[in-house]
Amino acid sequence: MIVIDASALASFILLEPGWERIAPYVKHCASVDHVVKEVTNTIWKAYVTGRISRKNVEEKHKVLMKLIGVNIKLYGEEQIIFDTLRLSMELKLPIYDTLYIALAKKLKLPLLTLDLKQKRKAEKVNVKTITP
Q1: Residue 34 belongs to what domain range?
Q2: pTM above 0.85?
């Protein structure tokens, strides 16, 4: 099991180049409940920028929601928000990105991310990272 962040999950949902390398991890992973908002926003942004159609928006969002609770176990951000705040100050990284690092640290799991800055920051606090 791993912790997946929004960058990796959105790439998988939108079938961006390299999504196949993420697929095996999505079968059984964990994330912060905030990931639903972030990935939904990324789907919206893909629509607004003309990358996907309105119909695709609905299809992509359905795929996301089917994964939640089945393949992706969500943890409430309130469970880790104080640890997130402390880590965020230490790493000088926004709360939104640090949530995933804090969860990975708490669960003692590797973090799957496509965000190289987040990867470097996570490794500074001894969180193993995976970048497929």
Answers
A1: 2-130
A2: yes
